[in-house]
Structures are given as C-alpha cells and as structure tokens.
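Re: that chain you flagged

S.,

Sorry for the slow reply, it's been a week of failed gels. I finally had a moment to sit down with the sequence you sent. For the record, here it is as I used it:
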Amino acid sequence: MNLIIQNISKHISLTPVEEALFLSKIETKNHKAKTIILNAGEVCKYSYFVNSGLLRSFTINDNIVEHVLSFACEGWWIGDMYSLLSQKPGNLFIEVLEDAEVVLLSKENQEQLYQEIPKLERFFRILTENSLVANQERLMDNLSLTAEERYEKFCKRYPTLIQKVSQKQIASYIGVTPEFFSKMKSKMLKK
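Prediction finished late last night. Pasting the structure tokens below so you have them in one place:
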C-alpha cells in the first residue's frame, strides 16, 4: 500500500491515523492480462489505482473500431470519470493489458473520506485538474499536430509504454489506423 500513499503524498500530507483510515476504505484485487474490469454500459463504481501492471481505457465505435483514451501503469489512476461522477452508464471499457494489482476506491468510500479527511478532496481535485489539462493538451495536439508529431510526443511523454503497448493500441491512441501507423513508422525509420 506504500505506492498509493506515496502517490497521495505528492500533493497532500496525511497523518498516520488518516493513512490508516484511507487504507481501511480501499480494496486490492489482482487481475490477469486481457481481463475487462469495466464494460461500456456499466456504471463505474470505482477509481482504480495501479499498484503494478498496465491498464487501458478505450471505447468501441459503431464500426467496431477501438479508440484508446488512456493508459495507466504503476502509480497511475484510471476510471470512467463521466460514469463515476454522474453514476450513469459509461462508454468506456477498462482492460488489463499486463497482469495487474489494482486498488479500488468506491465512490461511496471516496465521498466518506471527503467528509472524514477533507484534504483528500483537494488531492482528488488536483488529480482531476491534471487530467483535464492533459486531455485538453491531447485534444489540441490531435487538432494541430501531424500523426508523426503526435507519435513523437507520445514516445517522449510515455517512453516506458512504447515497449509494453501494441502498435495497434499506440496507433489508436494517436488517432490513426494501424496500417497508416505502420507506413508512417517505416517512413520515419528511413529518415
């Protein structure tokens, strides 16, 4: 549980009593690779923190094409924010890409923690703000950068993911087809 406490301590300080209370409100689960831990159409009941392994969130359009929204590796949070906050069925799948140990914090327990440890509300606000900034930046990149530039930015921002994530999933994340991605990479290697 040290990793999640370290993650929290990047933004706020918890007393030992507050740490113990927080730890009493979470549960840990182990998942095998290829496990879907959230399906589109379900209500997201948890914020997920990755202790180990790798997860991704994605959606599938009407043409059965996957669109990767995010990856989460060790020390990162993931979830379907729309569904979690609205408690309405979401559009995202969350899949385990590598065997993972995942910490689950239920919406109910999170709300209780806000009451009992108000500074945790600040922590989750900071996470939400950081996520909003990253999503806005990604949207702007998708509107203004070439596919090559988006791929280069992905490689710089997430160097550890390049070896762990399939080429198809990287292509989906940067918004191109796998075929285009393959041609683009081969062209880039010739430069």
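What I noticed first: Residues 95 and 176 are 20 Å apart (CA to CA).

Talk soon,
D.
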